[in-house]
Design goal:
Elements lengths: L1 H18 L4 E10 L2 E8 L10 E5 L2 E5 L6 E2 L7 E8 L8 H15 L7 E11 L2 E4 L9 H9 L23 H16 L5 E8 L12 H8 L1 E8 L7 H8 L4 E4 L4 H13 L1 H5 L2 E8 L9 E8 L2 E8 L5 H7 L1 H21 L1 H86 L6 E6 L2 E6 L4 E5 L7 E2 L10 E6 L2 E6 L6 E3 L2 E3 L1 E4 L4 E4 L2 E6 L1
Helix pairs in contact: 2-3, 2-7, 4-5
Length: about 525
């Protein structure tokens, strides 16, 4: 019974230590070889301890612990992970970085090991608005890859609220965005997820941030809540390497590709996600040490752990003296007691032999009856628990089905509203452009000549597509040298433009091959063997 209580106490201590985000613990403690104490030294750093200077402090005495070179993966890996991805929405000079990071993240989501029950969400970050750095303001966790990829697609920030300057000075707000956003993401994980998850923040940005601010550093929040930081950074000028340092201090990983190759970055991000839970669980060393505690009193002692900047403590249940040790210490008193007990038993057995036999028989019968009652009671309790578990599972499944239907209906309603808005906006823009075209007094027209004939066509809409296939264009130029969709003429800002639509033989304006160019009155266009004159 004592060993069971000791085991439960060890488990409770181990759980409590991990929940408080300790960096080092001593668990699975055994004193069966006392004064040698065996156990596992757990460290949060997934790469192990660089310097093997670990000390246990017993009653003020330091005991150096010999830590082996090799370590084992922790046996307490979390089932699920809670991750927040934050993507930098750059200032106007660096807008190209956001699409790059979005492409990398979507490719990684496709191939990463995302399990049912994981809690993952995606934000972009910008200068502070309404006391927030992370956007959009409406968000949710999900373990569905398609939902997560749609979250990435929906990261379409509006006008950039760039309050800082392009200066490299540390008083520029732009130089602290990553720091603020990382801290806000960590606080979100702290408030919205429990520590049963392996929790982490993934930063996808360039690394232009200063290293000192007055507010609480992200590292402090991360250490307090056992949150790891990982990063895929865009290699750009002005890098200050704050993110790399944050990843190292919070036991995450950092990757920067000097050529900014999206495929390589996506492969590395998949590796980070797939290894996240195992790395987050830390590592364990099998260690033994000889205790300096002399008195085997059976009491619990609090032992401190020191390893560089890491400190913790554990409870050591000192064993009691064995029966043999107690006998050695009290041999004369024990002999007197034994002699007296033997005499008493002899007298008792002589006078009450029959009575004792009857008592033993009744006792055996009672024991059998009690055991049978206990067995039946245990079977009834087990059956009751089983029925209760089945009911709970059925109720939980019903709740999940109802919630899934509600979310699907809500998503369908939002999609219909967005489609209606887009249709209305497109029609209004089209009418506005036609009105602007009419302001010139007449619509432009083209005159074409080719092997199959000639003709004239008036351009009365903002964009007209030309090509060989009548089913795909507004006006067909039927000749084999013309592509199915060859080029388009469109109206923008009171000017007309021509754009090649990836045609086979190209589009030539005034004898020059063009992809997108402004048109003027009288310009000569060649598409294959067809000649087109443009007039305003």
């Amino acid at each position: 019974m004592k060993s069971i209580y000791t085991f439960i106490a060890i488990l409770l201590f181990t759980f409590n230590g991990i929940s408080q985000s300790s960096k080092i613990l001593f668990k699975n403690i055994s004193t069966s070889r006392w004064p040698t104490v065996d156990g596992k030294l757990w460290v949060r750093n997934p790469d192990g301890i660089d310097k093997k200077e670990v000390y246990f402090i017993e009653n003020g005495k330091k005991v150096k612990i010999d830590v082996p070179t090799k370590f084992d993966k922790s046996d307490s890996v979390a089932k699920n992970k809670a991750l927040v991805f934050i993507l930098l929405h750059n200032n106007p000079r660096d807008f190209y970085q956001l699409p790059w990071h979005k492409g990398v993240l979507k490719a990684a989501i496709d191939k990463a090991d995302i399990k049912k029950g994981d809690q993952i969400t995606v934000f972009y970050f910008n200068n502070q608005r309404n006391n927030k750095f992370l956007f959009p303001e409406s968000w949710k966790f999900s373990d569905d890859k398609e939902v997560l990829k749609k979250m990435v697609d929906d990261l379409k920030p509006g006008l950039y609220d760039y309050a800082g300057s392009s200066s490299s000075e540390c008083n520029s707000m732009g130089r602290h965005l990553i720091r603020h956003a990382a801290r806000e993401a960590m606080e979100l994980l702290e408030s919205k997820t429990s520590n049963k998850f392996a929790r982490g923040v993934f930063i996808m940005a360039d690394d232009k941030v200063c290293s000192v601010v007055a507010e609480e550093e992200p590292q402090v929040v991360a250490e307090k809540n056992n949150i790891a930081t990982y990063a895929i950074t865009y290699n750009s000028a002005g890098r200050l390497d704050f993110i790399e340092g944050l990843c190292e201090r919070t036991y995450g990983k950092y990757y920067r590709n000097n050529k900014n190759t999206a495929d390589s970055a996506a492969v590395k991000l998949v590796e980070f996600i797939n290894d996240f839970n195992k790395r987050h669980a830390g590592v364990e060393y099998k260690v033994s040490y000889v205790s300096t505690i002399d008195n085997k009193d059976g009491l619990s002692k609090t032992i401190k752990i020191e390893c560089e900047e890491m400190k913790s403590d554990f409870t050591l249940n000192v064993p009691k003296k064995s029966l043999f040790e107690n006998i050695q210490a009290n041999i004369l008193w024990i002999l007197l007691v034994v002699i007296s007990l033997v005499l008493a038993i002899y007298v008792f057995q002589t006078n009450n032999k029959k009575k004792q036999a009857e008592i033993e028989r009744v006792k055996r019968e009672n024991d059998v009856a009690i055991q049978e009652l206990d067995r039946k009671r245990q079977m009834d309790e087990e059956e009751g628990r089983k029925r209760e578990d089945e009911n709970q599972q059925r109720i939980q499944q019903q709740i999940q089905d109802q919630e899934r239907k509600r979310m699907q209906e809500e998503q369908r309603r939002r999609q219909e509203e967005e489609a209606a808005k887009r249709t209305s906006t497109d029609a209004a823009n089209r009418e506005m452009l036609i009105a602007q075209m009419r302001e010139k007094g007449n619509f432009p027209w083209i005159e074409f000549t080719g092997p199959n004939g000639s003709g004239r066509y008036e351009l009365h809409v903002p964009e007209t597509i030309f090509g060989r296939d009548k089913t795909q264009v507004e006006f067909a130029l039927e000749h084999p040298t013309v592509s199915k969709k060859h080029f388009t003429i469109y109206f923008k800002d009171y000017k007309y433009y021509i754009r090649d639509l990836n045609s086979t033989n190209g589009t030539f304006l005034n004898s020059y091959k063009v992809t997108d160019s402004q048109l003027n009155h009288g310009d000569l266009i060649h598409v294959g063997d067809v000649t087109v004159n443009f007039y305003i």
